[in-house]
Write a structure and sequence with these properties.
CATH architecture of chain A: 3-Layer(aba) Sandwich
Order of helices and strands of chain A: HEEHEHHEEEHEHEHEHEHEH
Largest sheet of chain B: 8 strands, mixed
Distance between the termini of chain B: 23 Å
Number of domains of chain A: 1
CATH superfamily of chain A: Thiamin diphosphate (ThDP)-binding fold, Pyr/PP domains
Largest sheet of chain A: 8 strands, mixed
Radius of gyration of chain B: 27 Å
Radius of gyration of chain A: 22 Å
Strand content of chain B: 15-25%
CATH topology of chain A: Rossmann fold
Number of strands of chain B: 26
Strand order of the largest sheet of chain A: 2-1-3-4-8-7-10-9
Oligomer: heterodimer
CATH topology of the largest domain in chain B: Pyruvate-ferredoxin Oxidoreductase, domain 3
Shape of chain B: globular
CATH architecture of the largest domain in chain B: 3-Layer(aba) Sandwich
Largest interface: A-B, 74 and 99 residues
Number of domains of chain B: 4
Bound molecules: thiamine diphosphate, iron/sulfur cluster, magnesium ion
Number of helices of chain A: 10
Helix content of chain B: 25-40%
Helix content of chain A: 25-40%
Strand order of the largest sheet of chain B: 6-5-4-1-3-2-16-7
Chain lengths: 322, 658
């Protein structure tokens, strides 16, 4: 039975502001899951805290709305306990690159097979519009009393540097393109990062829907030029095609260089993809061969009468002195 | 007080094999049927600082260390300076006479105040501040001195094995010191050689050379000092199978047995040894049908009877606890192990597990705090924090183990409680326990039962595809289907939530959910038998009633026996489940007691405060200690004696230990 879009909607009241870019991301996630005919009870959406963090409540799969900044480690525990689950992480830019920055970077070193979507609105939405780690130095969004005193993080560069094996950017009002990216990110074998440009009409009066549509960015004939363009339509190939160090280095450098483009000419699409890196699940299997076939969540640990199934006789033998 | 045991000490520079020598000594003694208790003391340092190991052996059951040193085995000068004057009169010091000229003022790792005190003492006796001087002072105090020319003996062994490098040979100094000790005690040489061979079993050549070093030491000691030391150590017949274990690995083994399949950790002393043990043994043997459902892959058949525990070294303790909670959410018994600084970072995560009724076990190895504190030393300063860590109110069980065996069985109970009551369990073990070695009777694995509580394997009861994870039920414990269970979905959130887990700020729902969660503690208090919540030792009526918790147990029990032979009767109430607190039981016991003494390893008497809070009974007499060194049985004996004689201050602070 094919999964319909309506099957993925919940009865929870959605309290995002009208016109919020989060709606586009929500639709794209639901469309992607419907198109993939995902099993809702085999899918878990794990989120942090923020406006973005509420997303799981609107998606009818398992939803785990965690703590501010901690979506990634919660998701890590869920996935490693049950590697057969499809785990999607959704969080804010503050959540992932401010309070959760340590997890953002270190999870890149593991390459667990999950997709991490960041709702990048350059503000702390839920706490009323303070500057987030992706807001540029000197920018003054609506609710800031003074221009931003910190420099911005470049999420794409950071993700590539940290070791994510699939790095992409989408735009929340290009829902179809975003949906395709989400499907690719889920299908990617390894850790995928998707930065989504997400207008926050309530607090970010700089990166608005109109801004991305090209307001004030006129071509010679006076027509507004959209500020995003698609990498794949411009001959950019971010995919590592062979397990060759020189090739990998070239593609990493290319992605990092590309990540500097932002503003009037902002690339969306896949910056980097490398499927030659072993996943963390494979690495664990290397250490304990039964991990793959008999992962934690599949293991029976006791007989029905409560007798443990783990046999520790060998361990005890090592300790015997008489 | 008459001690019928033997207390041996070895010291040396950290990284020079002090640990190995203590293990060899202990195992040689234990395999001769003797009881052993070993205590390790070390600096927060990897190489260069001083560390020492004290091993107590006896033919009768012992559970603690003593302050008295009967024999000090040394192979370098710092140990002589630091410990020679701790050796009792009629005791023994084994040392290398080549060290005689080493001067105290040239040793950078000895603290200035220690140097000053020792120098003054030596000069008062008209002795020089060098090894010769200290050895002479010890001799004048009645200690027997046994010079052993290690290097000559080592060279002999080297010749036999074609090894000419003195620095390679000197790696056997520690074994030489052990063997010389046993030789003086006229202990069976073969047991020592066996222990050495086992210790180096992965390197057969090294093992043989070390065994010959044992022979050389026995040969020299026999020729030179035969019969000169009065105390003899002889093997006895052990009553049944015994194990020689360390605290950390007891917890690790029990985690595997309990079915823990996800362990996360961020390195910290004294907790990480446990995780490293699990990492080293991450592929496990499973009895019977190992996998539920269909084997997914062809290799599954080959893996039958095998199971893996995923051990993850996280980026910090926030990640460690939240990953473990993630494992709990997915239905896997999960835990993390840490010490004070790491536990401080886990507070918010604990609240999430409480709020979402997720089972998770945190093993908390307390050490000296606050802040970085005394990273490698002992303290019981985290009891209050374990009870209250996290904002808001949520249920948690706090379990404190008193000895090596309890650490094993309590680990399994911690997982059972966490699944039965669907909430975090904090299992407190402390540095003294983690780093103690001891002989214990063979563990009774058959005693262990796994209780997974209201765990569902499939979801049948859904409305509109949604499962009520927080369904209203009389007991407050809703059936729990892990995330990923087929048949329905639900949500979790740190926000207050309704029955399916969606955010709700409704006041009526809030009251219900608070009462549901907190009510689980009342249920736990009713259901868990008192025998699992407290231990009571000694006669019903006694001159003194001791209340304590955690690793002071062994020292208290050992002291009780000496006090008994002095005619002072003592009984002892050990609190094992600090939350939910066994209020009625403790109230009944303490209100009948003649004189109550609270004993614990912290400044403020944390358990004493909790007893007062829960029972309204003030414990007027406290015996506390916070210098980072565990209480010895002798200290407790002396303290209770003073209290009994009415000579003790109300707040008695113990000070011993180096
Ligand atoms: C530990 C902690 N500190 C602070 C907060 C308050 N807080 C809630 S949401 C938020 C920021 C959200 O910003 P972002 O992650 O960018 O998400 P957005 O709302 O923009 O989607 C903060 C600081 C919190 N919930 N927890
Ligand atoms: S504050 Fe901004 S991000 Fe939050 S819901 Fe409103 S528009 Fe969206
Ligand atoms: Mg934001």
């Amino acid at each position: 039975m094919a999964l319909k879009l309506s099957d993925l909607k919940t009865s929870a009241h959605n309290d995002w502001c009208p016109g919020c870019g989060d709606f586009g991301i929500l639709n794209a996630v639901q469309m992607a899951l419907a198109e993939m005919n995902a099993d809702p009870s085999g899918t878990v959406v794990v989120s942090g805290v923020g406006c973005s963090g509420k997303a799981p409540h609107f998606i009818k799969t398992y939803g785990v709305h965690t703590l501010h900044g901690r979506a990634v480690p919660f998701a890590t525990g869920i996935k490693l306990a049950n590697p057969n689950l499809n785990v999607i992480i959704e969080g804010g830019d503050g959540d992932g690159m401010g309070i959760g920055a340590g997890h953002f970077v270190n999870s890149g070193r593991r390459n667990i097979d999950m997709l991490y979507i960041i709702h990048d609105n350059e503000v702390y939405g839920l706490t009323k519009g303070q500057a987030s780690p992706t807001l540029g130095l000197g920018k003054k969004t609506k609710s800031l009393p003074l221009p931003n005193i910190n420099q911005a993080i470049n999420p794409i560069m950071l993700a590539v540097a940290a070791g994510y094996t699939w790095v992409a950017r989408g735009y929340s009002y290009d829902v179809r393109h975003l949906k395709d990216l989400i499907i690719k990110g889920i299908r990617h074998k390894g850790y995928a990062f998707l930065d989504v440009l997400q207008p926050c009409p309530t607090y970010n009066d700089i990166l608005t829907k109109e801004y991305w549509a090209g307001e004030g960015n006129l071509d010679a004939s006076g027509r507004p030029q959209p500020r995003t363009y698609k990498l794949e339509e411009n001959g950019y190939d971010g995919i590592v095609h062979s397990d060759d160090e020189a090739e990998i280095e070239k593609k990493v450098q290319q992605a990092i260089l590309k990540s500097f483009e932002f503003g009037d000419h902002t690339p969306i699409g896949v910056f980097y993809q490398n499927e030659f890196v072993p996943t963390y699940e494979e690495r664990l299997t290397g250490r304990s061969p039964s991990y793959k076939t008999n992962p934690p969540a599949s293991q029976e640990i006791a007989k029905p009468d409560g007798t443990p199934l783990t046999n520790i006789d060998k361990l005890l033998d090592e300790l015997r002195v008489s | 007080m008459k001690r019928d045991d033997f207390s041996w000490m070895i010291g040396g520079v950290q990284g020079s094999g002090v640990d190995t020598s203590a293990i060899v000594f202990s195992k040689a003694a234990a395999s001769g049927g003797l009881y052993v208790f070993g205590k390790r003391e070390y600096y927060s340092n990897i190489k260069g600082e001083h560390s020492y190991f004290q091993v107590r052996v006896s033919k009768d059951l012992i559970r603690s260390h003593v302050d008295t040193v009967d024999m000090l085995a040394t192979f370098e000068e710092e140990t002589i300076f630091r410990h020679a004057l701790e050796v009792r009169s009629e005791g023994a010091i084994i040392y290398d006479p080549d060290q005689d000229t080493k001067r105290l003022d040239t040793i950078p790792t000895i603290e200035a105040n220690v140097k000053a005190t020792l120098t003054a003492e030596l000069s008062k006796a008209g002795l020089s501040a060098d090894v010769k001087g200290v050895i002479e002072l010890a001799r004048r105090r009645g200690v027997h001195i046994y010079p052993v020319p290690y290097n000559d003996l080592l060279k002999e062994v080297g010749t036999k094995h074609g090894e000419t490098s003195l620095s390679t040979l000197q790696r056997m100094l520690n074994v030489m010191a052990v063997a010389s000790s046993f030789a003086l005690l006229s202990y069976d040489q073969e047991l020592v050689k066996d222990a050495v061979r086992k210790q180096f079993k992965s390197k057969p050549k090294v093992a043989e050379m070390n065994a010959d070093a044992v022979g050389a030491a026995y040969g020299f000691m026999g020729q030179k000092y035969a019969g000169s030391f009065a105390y003899k150590l002889s093997p006895v017949k052990a009553d049944g199978t015994r194990l020689f274990v360390r605290g950390n690995s007891m917890v690790a083994m029990a985690k595997e047995l309990a079915g823990c399949r996800l362990q996360t950790y961020y390195p910290i002393t004294p907790a990480s040894d446990e995780s490293e043990y699990l990492e080293a043994h991450s592929e496990m043997q499973l009895d019977g049908a190992a996998s539920q459902g269909e084997p997914r892959l062809a290799e599954a058949a080959a893996m039958k009877g095998k199971g893996a525990i995923a051990v993850v070294q996280s980026e910090d303790e926030i990640a460690a606890v939240t990953m473990a909670i993630g494992g709990g959410i997915a239905g896997v018994r999960s835990s993390t192990s840490t010490s004070g600084p790491g536990f401080s970072l886990m507070a918010e995560g604990l609240g999430y597990a409480g709020m979402n009724e997720v089972p998770v076990v945190v093993t908390l190895y307390s050490r000296g705090g606050p802040s970085t504190g005394l990273p490698t030393r002992h303290e019981q300063g985290d009891l209050r924090f374990a009870l209250h860590a996290g904002h808001g109110e949520f249920p948690r069980l706090v379990l404190a183990s008193g000895d090596l065996e309890e650490a094993f069985y309590d680990t399994v109970r911690a997982f059972n409680y966490s699944e039965k009551y669907q909430t975090p369990v904090i299992h407190m073990v402390d540095k003294a326990l983690a780093n103690s070695d001891g002989t214990i009777p063979m563990l009774d694995v058959k005693r262990v039962k796994i209780d997974r509580g209201a765990l569902l394997r499939e979801i049948k009861d859904v409305t509109n595809g949604e499962f009520k994870r927080f369904k209203h039920v009389e007991s407050g414990i809703s059936p729990r289907a892990p995330v990923g269970t087929k048949g329905g979905v639900y949500w979790l959130t740190g926000d207050e939530h309704d029955e399916v887990g969606h955010i709700s700020e409704d006041p009526v729902n809030r009251d219900y959910m608070m009462e549901k969660r907190m009510g689980k503690m009342e249920l736990a208090a009713k259901e868990i038998p008192i025998s699992d919540r407290a231990n009571f030792f000694g006669p019903e009526k006694a001159d003194v009633t001791v209340v304590s918790w955690g690793s002071t147990k062994g020292a208290i029990l050992d002291a009780m026996e000496w006090l008994k032979s002095d005619g002072i009767t003592v009984n002892f109430l050990q609190i094992r489940l600090v939350n939910p607190f066994p209020t009625e039981y403790v109230t009944a016991l303490l209100s009948k007691a003649k004189k109550v003494v609270g004993i614990e390893m912290n400044y403020s008497g944390q358990l004493i405060g909790i007893v007062r809070e829960r029972t309204c009974i003030p414990v007027e007499q406290m015996v506390i200690k916070y210098n980072g060194r565990p209480m010895s049985s002798e200290e407790i004996y002396d303290a209770i004696k003073m209290i009994h004689e009415g000579k003790a201050p109300k707040r008695m602070v113990l000070k011993r230990g180096a």
